[in-house]
Backbone:
């Protein structure tokens, strides 16, 4: 139901909107552009409010409003998605690449490389480009591993395993394999932080005792993470639950730069990020083992009263 007058019906292969028993619109379910056109048409005709359309079409009401504005400004053709990314020639010329290579050969950090290229050539190189460059080089060299920057985790866990082999620090039966260079983004701890979520940091001693993050790192891997690795994703889900937010979609309501220090990041992830990360974690089939490790840890720490059980 969209409202009292309109009904949205989805069947295998198509969707349709009815006014009573009269069909108003029909489209193929895979045709997202046509679906967006129907949504905008209903909004512009005044047959349904944005919030009702958003609920029926499984989008936010702000998405409905943006689509209507685009159609008003550029016609219905403005709803057809265009190619993303840069529209002009690449700024990373051979001269820029040579300057990046010289700076990296001197052992400069990413921020220092960016500053040097900007000052010498007037070109702004994005951090995402530098991260992609690092990953491509690591994959091109057999046996190379990106240095893990997880605080003192490397010193506790010993040398990194060889690519394609199981992690020796992981328990038997763990599905997480190091088949690609593993990079865990370091925790970002600001000198001063304030915000409405800071009280939740009082749970950090309990997290350390329960071993939530430690066990998650043993069972899961997010090797291509640039900002939000296993630690940040685990803490995000934990603190969302603590704040009585029972779905991942609730991340859209967070004040990102206030929540960021709580999870050791510059900002909280946008809602699409935990969605994508959870999909990656599910494919690793480590949930049962994760639960077993937590149970073992809690028994050893006397968190669970085994005599009572």
Residues:
């Amino acid at each position: 139901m969209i409202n009292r007058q309109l009904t949205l019906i989805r069947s295998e292969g198509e969707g349709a909107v009815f006014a009573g028993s009269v069909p108003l619109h029909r489209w193929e379910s895979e045709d997202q552009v046509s679906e967006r056109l129907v949504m905008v048409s209903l909004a512009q005709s005044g047959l349904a409010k944005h919030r009702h359309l958003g609920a029926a079409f499984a989008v936010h009401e702000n998405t409905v409003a943006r689509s209507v504005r685009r159609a008003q400004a550029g016609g219905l053709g403005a709803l057809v998605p265009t190619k993303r990314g840069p529209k002009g020639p690449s700024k990373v010329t051979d001269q820029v690449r040579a300057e990046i290579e010289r700076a990296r050969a001197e052992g400069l950090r990413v921020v220092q490389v960016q500053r040097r290229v900007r000052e010498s050539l007037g070109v702004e190189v994005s951090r995402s480009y530098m991260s992609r460059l690092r990953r491509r080089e690591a994959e091109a060299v057999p046996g190379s591993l990106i240095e893990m920057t997880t605080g003192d985790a490397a010193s506790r866990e010993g040398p990194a395993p060889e690519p394609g082999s199981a992690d020796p620090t992981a328990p038997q039966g763990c599905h997480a394999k190091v088949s690609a260079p593993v990079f865990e983004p370091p925790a970002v701890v600001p000198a001063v932080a304030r915000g409405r979520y800071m009280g939740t940091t009082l749970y950090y001693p309990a997290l350390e005792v329960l071993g939530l993050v430690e066990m998650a790192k043993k069972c899961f891997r997010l090797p291509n993470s640039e900002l939000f690795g296993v630690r940040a994703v685990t803490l995000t889900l934990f603190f969302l639950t603590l704040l009585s937010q029972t779905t991942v979609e609730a991340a859209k309501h967070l004040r990102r730069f206030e929540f960021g220090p709580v999870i050791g990041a510059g900002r909280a992830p946008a809602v699409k990020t935990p969605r994508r990360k959870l999909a990656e974690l599910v494919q690793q089939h480590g949930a049962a083992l994760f639960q077993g490790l937590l149970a073992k840890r809690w028994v050893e720490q006397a968190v669970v009263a085994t005599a009572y059980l």
Remarks:
- The chain has three domains: 6-79, 94-140, 153-300.
- Confidence is low (pLDDT under 50) at residues 141-173, 175-181.
- Residues 222 and 229 are 6 Å apart (CA to CA).
